[in-house]
Amino acid sequence: MIQALFFDFNGVVIDDEPLQLKAYQEILAEQEIGLSEEQYYASMGMDDRAFLRTAFARSERELTPATMQQLLRQKSDIHRRLILAELPIFPGVVTFLKTAARRYPLALVSMAQREEIEYVLTRAHLSSLFSVVISGEDVARCKPDPECFALALAQMNVERRPPLLPQECLVIEDAAQGIAAGRAAGMRTLGVTNSVTEAALRAAGAEVVTKSLADWTLAAVERVWEG
């Protein structure tokens, strides 16, 4: 039986994977480093630091700590600029989150910068729905490593008796790396084809795959994962 829901952020709550790609391309172009769409989507699950280190290594370029900090700031500024006029929240997600929060504790588990997460949640009036928020700054290892989900579960269990078990938690992800991380943490998994194909999500271990969270109700979640 599912007792808690763990959501990814980029590509699940906010429809900004193409905007993340655009922001990375803009800052890397200034460093004379190219970034293709294929390279970006192959690196899903990385936090910004790991992504930049990978891009520089791929181009055999040195990435100094000062340049890292500069690029992190620039990327966050560009991302905010791109969503300033209109916040691209996926259809049906706000309703699903608000309904779910009345029944289950919710966690947001992302490799995004906390600043970006908090900005979006505040603008969308969703901050109060999540009892736990894990960002890229909170962990040492990126998805598909399960550290982020294990940390989220530990935080959720701080004052909970009896504690939640991993198999009582449902991970909702748009990336194969996130699905793999959830499975490695011992959790159940629902893949959403907002960013990659159904085949890629199932290959990573997604138990169920859907085209949109707008198609889901809590009753459907309970029917699928009732045991």
Notes on the structure:
The protein is an alpha/beta fold and 227 residues long. It has two domains: 4-15 and 87-224, 3-Layer(aba) Sandwich (Rossmann fold), CATH 3.40.50; 17-82, Putative phosphatase, domain 2 (DNA polymerase, domain 1, Orthogonal Bundle), CATH 1.10.150.240. It contains ten helices and six strands. It has helices at residues 17-29, 37-42, 48-58, 65-82, 93-101, 114-123, 147-156, 176-184, 198-204, 218-224, and strands spanning 4-7, 106-109, 132-134, 169-173, 188-192, 208-210. A six-stranded parallel β-sheet has the order 3-2-1-4-5-6, with helices on both faces. Helix 1 (17-29) packs across helix 4 and helix 8 packs parallel to helix 9.
Describe the structure in brief:
The protein is an alpha/beta fold and 227 residues long. The chain is built from ten helices and six strands.
List the helices and strands and how they pair.
Layout: E1 4-7, H1 17-29, H2 37-42, H3 48-58, H4 65-82, H5 93-101, E2 106-109, H6 114-123, E3 132-134, H7 147-156, E4 169-173, H8 176-184, E5 188-192, H9 198-204, E6 208-210, H10 218-224
Parallel strand pairs: 1-2, 1-4, 2-3, 4-5, 5-6
Keywords:
single chain; alpha/beta; Rossmann fold; DNA polymerase, domain 1; six-stranded parallel β-sheet; globular
